[in-house]
Design goal:
By secondary structure, this protein is mainly α. About 80% of the residues lie in helices and about 0% in strands.
Length: about 190
Amino acid sequence: MISDKEIVAAFQVSDNEGYRKLIDAYGNYVYTIITDKVRGLANEQDKEECVADVFMETVKECKSHDFTMDSLKAVIAVVSKRRSVNLLKKLSARKLQNDYLDEIAEEPVYSETPETLSVSKSEKETLWNEVLNLGKPDSDIITLQFFYGKTVAEIAKTPKMTTSAVNKRSQRAREKLGKILTLKEVF
């Protein structure tokens, strides 16, 4: 096992020799930390790049403190965990984006014709009129919730109602709308 003092001495001779000893001593340790954090999301290339980044950042940190740390292993552990979490976030975001793209790619393509446009416009007008016919505050709640994308908590502030009251009124209003629209056979 190569000691931290040997690694520091190697860096004083040359950076290449220092990197070689550092990687020999802690390469498997860093790889294990990264693999543990990003299991299932990262491919080998992603992991290898992250390992290289860990060693680069570790040396940069050590040089900024003139290699006066008590333990290189502690510095490497912290840098490895930080870098692997960053990689995990990056890969998770990429996976979410790819899942979304896959999802929208599978959606059927509807061809819009003048007939379908007029039918959907008629349906929208009917829906809007029925929402307005619910009366206040139900129509306000449905409008804010589904047309303006407001949360229940945001809506509860507006008419000075509790969130549970807004939830209950929204649920009842949607049920009422469903019955009315089913009777009209619009939807």
